[in-house]
Amino acid sequence: MRGFDPRNYTGFLTVTLVCLFILYAPLIVVAVYSFNDSVSITRFTGVSLRWYADVFTGLEAAKFRAAAANSFSIAIMAAMAATAIATAAAVGMVRGGNFRGKPASFALISMPIMVPEIVTAVATLIFFSTIGFALGYLSILVAHIVFCIPFAYLPIAARLQGIEASFEEAAQDLYANRWRAFRYVLAPIMAPGIFSGFLLAFIISLDDFIITNFVKGAGVETLPTAIFGAVKQGIKPNIMALSTLLLLFSILIVTLSYLIGRSGNEKYQN
Amino acid sequence: MAAGIGGRTVSSAFAPIRLWLLLPSWVVIGFFLLIPVLLILVYSFLTKEFRGGVIWDFTLAAYDQFLFDRGLFGDDPPTIQWTYITIFVRSILQAAVATVLCLLIGFPTAWYIATRAARMRSIWLFLVTVPYWVNLLIRTVSMKFLIRENGPLNEFLLALGIIDSPLEIINTDIAVQLGLFYSYLPFMVLPIYAAVERYNFALSEAGADLYAGRWTIMREIVLPVVKPGIIAGCILVFVPSLGAFLAPDLLGGAKNFMIGSLIEEQFKGQAGNWPFGAASSMILLSMVLVVLFFYARGQAREQV
Fold this sequence. Notes:
The complex is a heterodimer. Helices cover 73% and strands 0% of the residues of chain A.
């Protein structure tokens, strides 16, 4: 069989393009319609930025601002807490030698990913209600920290697994204590993984609707719950503008994460 | 330095303080997720309080309501209650179909990406992962906008003359299907991609040397080798699809209830029956655990 290339299958490129088309078409359509000049969402009458202005200065602007403030402050705090907890856990799991409860420990850390989101939402709501924890900003923050931990853990642990143990061993041979070996040797090499973990946790927190919807209590909204509430009455043009802004923000973050994740990935691997 | 050479030797520089490193994650997840999940089990056996909440009287009422219809006043002879069973069966079918669709589109995509040159590979992969980072709610709303009755899709098809009257996709099972497929497709592509990337193409060439055809090679050689990636992808799509809320709620309308909407209704909606919501959550969780159990067992077998 001369000229046989085991990599190429006819039609696979077409399927890939169809796949990308399905993934992007709805997003692009909404982005385009967000620039529509019309009050109607059906007819495209001309290009304008009026709905973007409406997001910031319109009737619902105060509501969106409050929701955005909640969303971003919760996402930053939850991602920081989850990253700190996950970094410690990754060092313990990957550099802590073999121990008996290792599979159980891994199962517990990945539990928030394994349990369906709606079940986590129910669990958290009834737990808070049983112990009498008031639903509001704080309950959302706690719930977000919990489900962000595995998302921060996975990239951090993956990075750590790729780093040779000789680095911190050399540091310890030179009389660095454990903390210094971590702080000055291991942590800088792990930094891209820690940063990816943080960004992933941040996006996951910003993205969450189901769990937030259960534990938010009355009056406290995040961007997804505010958008969901608005969409229940029908998709309005200002929601499309707001969605497009969030969309661009997500793309910015993923691009950042991609560029950082690529930097110096091969240098320290065995 | 023996530790680095073997590649997979277990490093233990931090073993003495291991407990302190792991404790924060154990405490946070154990206290705020493991205990709450166990609490769901307790709640599913409690008596419902009118309009949400519970009374601490143990009863099987929630599970009874799930399975049996005892009439309006609860004193008729019990007959099988099909409403909730139907919702669960529909959810399983929807999740299964979504998984198959994702596999049919996701496998060729993952294959195509994994067989590109390294530079192009990372660009393709980037393109596939970007939508995963975009807010799921926004993606679902975008899909709703696109396929609604007088939405851009129908306008486009009408303008081209392909259809005479708008397609009624929204509020059907097909719309839910489209939403699930769209939500979880990247979860299928990534693990298969990882498996194909590690695949040794000399195996395919050996097959070709022995006069196997292209698709025979795919079926007999490639698929068995990359199977773990395929199974991982299927689980990553099936599990979240089973408990999905946004796609059935926004795209399916009232007639296409799935488990996620049923549970939500008990806590946030009109129904306000916490024990019943807890029981439904436990049934959903058990189904997921069965899937994960078989997956773990299969993996353990592969390693032996």
